[in-house]
Amino acid sequence: MKILFFDLETTGLNPDRNAIHQLAGYVEIDGVIKQKFDFKIQPHFNAVIDAKALEISGKTKEEIMQYPESKVVFGEFKRMLNQYTDPYNTKDKFFLCGFNNASFDNQFLRGFFNVNGDKYFGSWFWSNTLDVMVLATQYLQNKRIEMPNFKLVSVASAMGLDVDVSKAHDGLYDIELTYQIYKRIVEPNSLG
């Protein structure tokens, strides 16, 4: 089984107006992490950049405008995908996996393909997704009333993971927490 664990940091909440400025994650095949990645991405030319979104991720507009151009990073991302899957084989695709990715990240990732002129998102990824927030809902249903919210940091803490709040909203750190939560749920003995 091929899973692309991924997390995004964006310039806002609307995938039609805003853009990705960080795409981080792990390529896992048959339970083995084959590659970790952390792409920094300059928002495409017409993307709206909301100051509040950047504040959450601890970035400035000047900083993200120094990142490599979207089309360059898109090419690197596709080359990475090509190493592990064949887009012409309809049975060789990744499951997308993230925290709240079904309702947020997946749309931004699809938009990243579209803005770079690639309409073949479905050649790389299954249409159904693995959403760790949804998986954690059942796992933590008896603790939910005690939790302040159901954000990634709160879920990780409720599951007994060590959390460094100062690193939250960095894509690579967030995907590490997401990955650990996923493993605790689907492979309870894998993390000790």
Please give a structural write-up.
This protein has 192 residues and is α/β, with parallel strands linked by helices. It has a single domain, classed as Nucleotidyltransferase, domain 5 (2-Layer Sandwich), CATH 3.30.420. It has helices spanning 51-57, 61-64, 70-84, 101-115, 132-139, 152-158, 171-186; strands at 2-10, 20-29, 32-40, 95-98, 130-131. A five-stranded mixed sheet has the order 3-2-1-4-5, with helices on both faces. Helix 5 crosses helix 7 (171-186) and helix 6 (152-158) packs across helix 7. The longest helix is centred in the last third of the chain and has 16 residues, at 171-186. It is globular and about 45 Å long. The two termini are 22 Å apart.
Any chance you could write out the topology, listing elements then pairs?
Layout: E1 2-10, E2 20-29, E3 32-40, H1 51-57, H2 61-64, H3 70-84, E4 95-98, H4 101-115, E5 130-131, H5 132-139, H6 152-158, H7 171-186
Helix pairs in contact: 5-7, 6-7
